[in-house]
Task: structure prediction
Amino acid sequence: MTSARHLPSARRTRHGAVLGVLVALAALVLSACGSGSGAGTAAAGGGGGKSTTLKWASSFFPTHWDPVVGGSGAQFRILALPYAALTKTDAKGNAVPDLAESWSYNSAGDEVTFHLRPKLTFSDGTPVNAAAVKNAIDRAKSQKNSALFGDLTSIKSVSTAGDLDVVVHLTQVDHQIPLLLGERVLQIASPKAAADPAKLDQNPVGAGPFVVTQLIPGTKVVLKKNPNYWDAKNIHIDNVQLVSAPDKSTVVSGLQTGVYNFADLAPSQAKAAKAAGLDVFVQPGFNASNISLNINKAPFNNPKVVDAVRYATNSQEFVDKLTFGYGKPTNQPFPSGYVAYDPKSANLYPYDPAKAKQLLEQAGIKPGQIKLDLVIMADDPAAEIVQSQLAAVGITVTIKIDKTWATPFFAKDLTLSLYGTTGRDSAVQTLTAHFGPNGPLNLSSPYEPDGFEAAIAKVRQTPLDAPDYPQVLQAATRAGLQSKALVFTYSSPNLFAKNKSISALPANPAHIDWTGVTIGD
Amino acid sequence: MSTDGRPVLEVADLEVHYGLRRRRRRVLHGVSLSVSRGETVGVIGETGSGKSTFARAVLGLVRASGGRILIDGEDVSRYSSRQWRALRRRGVVQYVFQDPLRSLDPDLPVEESLIEPLLVQGVGRKEAIERGRGYLARVRLDSELFGRLPGELSGGQRQRVAVARALITEPALIILDEPVSALDSANRVGILEILKELRDAGVALIFISHDLGSVAGVADRVAVLYQGEFVEVGATHAVINTPQHPYARLLVGSAPTLRSAAASRAERDALRALLHA
Amino acid sequence: MVRRVLALPTGRLAVGVLSVIALLAILGPTLAPHNPLGTSALTLTGPSWKHWLGTDYLGRDVFSRLLAGSRTSVLGSVEVALIALAVGVVPGILSVYLGRGFEWFTLRIADTLLALPFLIYAVAVTALLGNGIPQAMFTVGVLVSPLFYRVTRAATLAVARSQYVEAALISGASIGWIARRHVWGKVLPPVAVALAQTIGVGFVVVSSLSFLGIGVQPPAPTWGGLLASDLGYLSYQPWAPIVPALLIMATVWGSNLLADAIRDVSGEAGRALLNSRRARARRLNPAEPIPAGGAAR
Amino acid sequence: MTRTLPDGTVTAAVPAARPADPPALDPPAAQAAALAVRDVRIRDDVNDREIVHGVSFELRPGRAVGIVGESGSGKTLTCRAILGILPAHFAVSGGSIEIVGRDIAELTTPQWTDLRGSTISAVFQDPASYLNPSIKVGAQIAEVIGVKTGLRRRAARRRALELLTAVHLRDPELVYDQYTFELSGGMLQRILIATAIAADPQVLIADEATTALDVTVQAEILDLLADLRERRGLALVVVSHDLAVVAQVCDEVLVMREGEVVEHGSTADVLYHPRHEYTRLLIAEHEQYGLDRYLAGEQRKELDSVH
Amino acid sequence: MAVSTADHAVVADPGVALAAARARRGAGRVLVTLARSVAIFVPVFLVATFLTFALRSLSGLSPAHIQLGESATPDAVARIEHQWGLDRPFLAQYWTWFTNILHGQLGTSWTNGANIAELISNGLAVSLSVVVLALIIGVLFGFGLGTLAAVRRTTWIDRAITGFLTVFSVMPPFVVGIVLVTVFAVGLGWLPAAGYVPASVGTWPWFTHILLPALALSLDPMADVARQLRSGLIAAYQENYVTGAIVRGLSPRRIFLRHVLRNGVGPALSVLGWRFPTLIGGSVVTEWIFGLQGFGRFANDSAQAGDVPAVQGVLVVSIVLVVTFNLIVNIVLGRVTPASQRGV
Result:
């Protein structure tokens, strides 16, 4: 499941940004005061002068610390602190070695062997070996509350070959596995600790760059550098204090006064953060938001209505009003420029309200005749935009906020909803989640666009480094975009603010990787 | 005026208890009294002696736990609240409170309070007001006070209104609970004069007070209530001049008098010692 | 009563403020110069001739939204007050008459509701029972109802034990008669005070809930909701929260003032106050020091 | 009789002629007076009216003067003027008041504080309200003793217990630790008296001190006051609406009506030779409607014959 | 003459006995207050917990929705609900839950399976720091301002204070919080804008971190206490016992401190008892603004996440806190103004 994060969490979008005010005032004051992290912030509690601490306020504080359970949303970025995976991605989105030194496919392409680095241990001392990896995959496939098994359908079984070699047997030819088994899906926990999943959920034990020393559920986690991490020499941060972020407004003032030095940011706060002298940057990612339609229910069982919605949707308005220039319009589950983005589909359904009205007229529907409930989990300005855009073509939408939104949504009981994905490292996974017959984000299950299945199979069979891989992938995207169940709107940015003393982060898309990052004074 | 023999009120062996079970206290014990038309009976007792309870029992506001109460020959001791309401509506018995300010609704004009008993009886408003004026005159109040609020009247005026209100149903018996204690001399005399007139007109009065002196002028008979019992009942002059019970003697001896102390300090001290023993 | 409230300067002020607010609530939606839900490309603009208070994050006219939202906002807190009134007053009166069992039971319920930290409870109930203004109003209303219960009960008790009620009783008046003639007039002023107070409380609570994202029904505007969302865009429109905040504060303040004024003029003491004010108006001697033991010269 | 006497001249006319009276207005004697009130006038600033139109009397140690009048006659205001506690908008607009020879108009606040309690003190109607409901009554007596005489806690306590005994309270130890709401009106009035005399004042003002009490208790309190006067040489000002109460305790009586003193003289004079109609009314109240009607018929006849 | 020690003992005896009797009377009063409060507390607690527990049934929420997410098939939902015992009769569930509460067990969170009692106690440390400081600030300043206003009543000082307090009390709490952050943290840079540091790290950092939120929270009780105290004191000054004290020759200062304050303080104190729930409630907003991971934040997060056992835990704890606080206020009230306890 998992891959999608419901985009604007209630608190992020809604309230928030009070900062701005502060900032406006503060801008003046600041110029006089110099860097804000002065007097008041006795908080740091820093011991020796040399030790560096990352003070991170996150709006996506993980509810689960067992990677098998807590796989969804943006939380894996945080779980990557204590956990490492077989692979990780580089700046281009390619799989590169993490715990696995290298990997190799058999000639048929239905079996892949990962070669682990030697002499690694989890933070509880358990060795990182083939058995541990097998345990992790098995657990992800079979544990009752696993959030991951839907992502692992290509994996038939796992066997070990010696201490350090893990052989993954596949149900089909699938060259996406090295991307799949990265940080996003398969963070590996100590098998010893995982023997009691409930306990692991409160006390993470992994082989990642940091070790958890204190965890207050839902609130705060304290980590220190893991000296046994395989790449420990490139980790320059000694301590991490991660807390659940406060109201948007105070995030910036917190950063400004040094309570935090790193935080994710609502786009509306970017201006304030910049004015406060913070580094505001966008981390590349695969985010994409959509309007989910259920074609099994009226009125979307009428293709003309679906098309009308497509033409009525103005992506640019979402970008302008929600992202403050940091997002991009997209009509695909990927941002433009990403390898899976299909430029040929870029103008598939251009914004054309007149045409939308015409289509509705053709379908014999009078303006105002269609009345729909747009069910979402938390208040979200995007819903208001959808509402106004559809109203412009004569479809009346009522926004309903429902805490238990997930139940009807995933049971495919809703007619109209919104969703936003943070994307997956494997584009195939993203595509199947949205367009596949059982894709969790396909509100119209078991509907599937024609030719999509074949196009996906072809991608799986194409090695990642094959020259025609992009074309094959884009063809699959094109096939998927025929789906009447989804109208993509915009790509929201992964926006962060940091204190200038923190060096730039590696631009690995959709990940936050601390390798090589330094914190100065 | 005419005393036709049948008493207006007859109380026999009245018992009243307050509280439940272990907290049960006896407030009145075996109290008997009868009051005839045109007769004024003073009930004298100190705070807590049970004199207000006596009045409230007669009015049916407190349930007696024993004994009988006859009003106008009717045994009311077992009356239901419905029966009581019917009886009260007839206005046979009326009551005047000690504090006239609190017994008149401060937010209603005097006339409203005055004619309330008539309205309750179902008398038409116009007629009620007409009759009200008459009774106001009878207590020597100017009818221009009609529209005023109780807060705008003097204490004496208020008490007259209260008396008029009690009179308006032509009751056979009026119970007055300390009607003059809150008044100063001139008003006190005024009220007492009105009471005398009433008595002469044949209304039976029960005049409750802690002060024998204020009762002495109008009461034909006096009943001295002490710790829930009538310790002495008799003609006023007899009780005052030859009190028998030590408490009655103390009472007489304590009343402030102008020219002749009824008892010396030494006598009073002796009586107190006797009572507390 | 109304005339007496108006006799006080604070009463006049309160009535003035509240009338303006009430006028807004009645006429606001029709006065809005723009469609309060109509978005435009001009987002987060400053005040201009066309948009007096600028536009919001979706390019909607803030002034129109404030006007359009006034009815919902005012009705919201009035609703809170009325629910509290309905829930509190009747048991408050009955607790005096229906016997000890009922009295004990309602008293404990009132204690309980008082003991519940109502913002937390309101958050919990509205979040758990569905995110709607009606749920929020209902919860807050029920939670503040002990105020009405107590006030009514106290007033009724005072009346029930008063001699004039006893006097009416002795004249054979029925409970209904007494309630109409004596109880009603005494209970009304404190209830009016409580009502005015509750309107203020309701406003603050409902806007706090909106701030937490609870009970908001987009895109319908409310003052609390506008304030909460304005706080999210402070760097663009630092002045924007001021207007809804002022409206909220004015309403709350007006209600409190009215409550004070009613309290001041009701009953015997109120008459005395008004009389003494009239008397004092004729003389020009100001402050009276507290007689703390100085010689009176 | 001297019915024709104009009201205003009564006060001036009273003193010297009465044999029972001390020679008033005589300077050396005035110095001996514990309290001297001379033509005191009190006005209400709100409606700018004079409420009390000249009250004069003098009080020597061990003597008692009574003031009788209905409510609103100005008797309580006069007392308050003497004590320096007139309500907010009232002020002494004429005349003078001297307490043991000191003109109170010249007293500063600390001097007042010093004077009250130790030289002049007072008790009032409704004693419960004049005691702090939150402090044990004993502690309130001890407080006065501590402040006024400088006695330490234990000594003050002992003295307070003595005082409680002196005002005839049974079981003073128990009473000491009780609060006002646990005590009856009669007991509270005794306690109020005890606090008033705790610092041994020379003058005690009893303003309607027995009005709300049962008759028997009233008698006890009056007896107590008489007792204190005899034993301690306390000078008393007794204020009441009941002429009989005043007559029982006082040597000298002032009858007030609507701010005027309509009658002033020795008690016997006032009782037996009332000059003003109002005084007669007061007497009639008792003779016609009170106990006097029945009591001591012979004595009465005797009196009548005097007339 | 030689007085034997025995004589002393005899002499001392009555005094000792009396002192003991007095102590017993004092203790008795406290006990009566305590018993009375407990008699109120127990039913309140029962009703409140019942109302709280009923929330789950009313809400129709279930752990299954939270845990299963995308794979919430009806079967899976039923399985999870059984696992949590939610298919048992309502009263049976309530009884189990209630007995657990009495043992201090608040159950486990639906969202992350953590022990709720632990989570709450973590948050409580933060919240109580803030709330207690807020109370102290509120009471100190409220008393100061209220007294000043009362003593200088009808002067411009009184009017200024009253006006000032009115503005405070009508400002929505989140506006207050944001203004404070803007001025003191960002503008002046005196205090940190957000976060919490446990006292174990250092008293000063702890204090500076909770000062702003406490200040934000204190305005309401401050205004209330001051207003009540003002009218309480003015009323007390008009009481006869003040006249009595003046006539006894006590100094104005002494009268104020010992007599007026003591009685005037009553309404202010009871208002404080009333205010406590509001204060706890107010921490929801304050903690949200100041980035405090306290009790209120936990309440809000749990409620928003539909984590019913956590919300129930929060409510139970806040009820206990409120009731305990009121108990304390009642006892203090009983000592300061014994008359007020009569017939309560």
Notes: Residues 102-170 of chain B form one domain. Chain B touches chain C at residues 59, 61, 85-91, 93-95, 97, 99, 102-108, 113, 116-117, 120-121, 149, 151, 165, 169 (CB under 8 Å). The mean pLDDT of chain B is 85. Residues 185-200 of chain B form the longest helix (16 residues).
